[in-house]
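Deliverable D2.4 — example input (structure tokens):
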């Protein structure tokens, strides 16, 4: 009997331990590249309720949540498991924590333990020929091109990022998820209007678009690395299926593309022949030294200006300092720049302006300056010399006394009173009064108009004021009117851009955007075709008009990378005008 009691006690203890709630987070990997996906499973061994996932702020939820349940009996022992699965794509690099998820079971709340994840730069992903994403990867290439791989220190180079798309694939949108940091480089993006162009990649014909051009000035010698650019691209991949009209059908795939990592070998500037006054200028320059006025009176100011003009690292070096003779008070120079950054580097001029105030009469010699720079074209140092400046100072004006010891000046000029002479002859000393004609104003038409007119204006002013307040307070109406006006503007812009494919469809898409914001009260963050379709149907728009509108939106997205004729653009414009007119009538 005693062994049976012990056995029952052990059995119930094991069953009690089995019944204890276990809730945990499992990840497919703790370290991944920014172009990889992460699988996250929230697993429990009891059937809990009210599952609450963590906030995936640093991730894009690619898929999920999907739920799976497993309930098995083996040798009389029950095994239960419930799992919520997410597939995530990281938005940034660095240390990211998957926070706690929660579940309720048997009146208690259970939470998982936070899981740290390390996200690195983009990595090479093994390819699968049968994977649709692999097909997209063979059709689209994100490429980084470097103008020069072995520059001198502070010599400009340009890195250009291009996206190549073949003729069987369309790109409907993209989002940059990781930009290069350009560590150890002074950098600036070049703003240019980029258009789709035709070119070749690996010997095949492609369409390509320049995404970004950045001018870099290396600030450190040795082997420097340029991190890849990573983008999430929405790709329309052509399949072998055809629609009713015989056109190829496309399948949408979202995939992360990354450019290759580039290496720059930065050479130090040669030590041989380096001038003593060299301050780091690299490029080709000219120098000018001048005075705004070379002849002044004592205590009168003038300016000495030293200007360097040319092409090179204009913002990254100092101009030579100037020395001035005694008895000339010189203030700290005012630095000004007139520099633009183009695709081949910085161009323009920089100037230091010294304000000078001589305090004694005389002739002064202001010494010239030298300026040295390194010319990467000839690989030699060059020195520019500016001639001396001559400043002649006259005596101070009468009444201005100069203290020779301190250089301070004091004005003692007295102004004399000038006789006005006959300048006041126009003032009349005798008044001539004339009687006012006797006219009856009381009870005249003018009298009643002046008395009753303001009283009649009061209700009119009140009505106008009320209408103005209603107009100002009608924020919704004002927003609708403004959006309608913008929509008309963009439709007009689209009409003017007929023949220019990219500009036309961008204008058409902007018109749709503003129209929908006004009519459906939809914000930019909600501008998705699924949301638009849902709202149009809620507004009692027919399914046919809704499908036509969504179809035209897709045309605007895809037409940027697919060739279109002017006839097609004219047809799409007329269709857009008709759809907006029909939507105005159907939206309730």
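Example output (designed residues):
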């Amino acid at each position: 009997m005693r062994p049976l009691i012990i056995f029952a006690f052990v059995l119930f203890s094991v069953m009690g331990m089995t019944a204890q709630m276990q809730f945990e987070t499992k990840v497919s990997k703790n370290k991944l590249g920014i172009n990889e996906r992460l699988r996250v499973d929230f697993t429990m061994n009891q059937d809990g309720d009210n599952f609450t996932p963590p906030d995936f702020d640093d991730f894009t939820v690619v898929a999920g949540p999907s739920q799976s349940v497993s309930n098995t009996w083996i040798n009389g022992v029950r095994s239960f498991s419930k799992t919520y699965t997410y597939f995530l794509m990281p938005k940034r690099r660095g240390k990211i924590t998957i926070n706690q998820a929660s579940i309720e079971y048997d009146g208690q709340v259970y939470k998982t333990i936070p899981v740290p994840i390390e996200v690195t730069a983009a990595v090479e992903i093994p390819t699968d020929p049968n994977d649709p994403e692999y097909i997209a990867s063979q059709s689209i290439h994100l490429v980084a091109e470097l103008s020069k791989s072995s520059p001198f220190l502070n010599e400009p180079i340009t890195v250009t990022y291009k996206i190549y798309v073949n003729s069987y694939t369309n790109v409907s949108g993209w989002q940059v998820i990781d930009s290069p940091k350009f560590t150890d480089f002074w950098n600036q993006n070049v703003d240019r209007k980029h258009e789709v162009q035709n070119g070749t990649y690996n010997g095949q014909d492609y369409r390509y678009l320049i995404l970004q051009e950045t001018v870099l000035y290396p600030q450190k010698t040795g082997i420097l690395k340029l991190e890849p650019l990573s983008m999430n691209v929405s790709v329309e991949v052509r399949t072998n299926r055809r629609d009713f009209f015989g056109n190829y059908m496309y399948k949408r795939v979202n995939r992360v593309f990354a450019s290759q990592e580039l290496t720059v070998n930065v050479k130090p500037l040669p030590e041989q022949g380096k001038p003593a006054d060299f301050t780091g200028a690299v490029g080709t320059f000219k120098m000018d030294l001048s005075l705004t006025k070379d002849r002044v009176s004592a205590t009168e100011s003038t300016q000495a200006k030293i200007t360097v003009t040319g092409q090179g690292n204009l913002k990254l070096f100092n101009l030579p300092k100037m020395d001035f003779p005694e008895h000339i008070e010189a203030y700290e120079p005012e630095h000004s720049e007139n520099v633009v950054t183009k695709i081949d580097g910085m161009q323009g001029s920089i100037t230091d302006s010294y304000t000078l105030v001589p305090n004694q009469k005389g002739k002064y010699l202001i010494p010239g300056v030298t300026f040295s720079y390194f010319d990467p074209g000839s690989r030699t140092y060059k020195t520019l010399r500016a001639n001396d400046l001559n400043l002649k100072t006259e005596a101070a004006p009468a009444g201005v006394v100069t203290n020779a010891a301190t250089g301070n000046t004091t004005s003692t000029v007295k102004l004399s009173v000038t006789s006005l002479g006959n300048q006041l002859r126009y003032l009349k000393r005798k008044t001539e009064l004339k009687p006012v004609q006797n006219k009856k104003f009381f009870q005249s038409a003018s009298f009643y108009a002046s008395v009753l007119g303001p009283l009649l204006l009061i209700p009119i002013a009140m009505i106008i004021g009320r209408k103005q307040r209603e107009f100002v307070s009608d924020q919704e109406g004002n927003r609708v009117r403004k959006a309608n006006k913008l929509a008309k503007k963009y439709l007009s812009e689209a009409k003017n851009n007929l023949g220019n494919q990219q500009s036309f469809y961008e204008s058409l898409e902007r018109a749709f955007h503003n129209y929908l914001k006004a009519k459906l009260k939809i914000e930019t963050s909600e501008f998705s075709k699924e949301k638009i379709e849902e709202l149009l149907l809620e507004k009692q728009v027919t399914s046919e008009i809704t499908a036509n509108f969504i179809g035209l939106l897709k045309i605007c997205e895809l037409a940027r990378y697919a060739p279109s004729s002017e006839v097609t653009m004219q047809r799409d414009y007329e269709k857009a005008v008709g759809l907006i007119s029909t939507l105005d009538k159907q939206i309730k």
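The mean pLDDT is 79.
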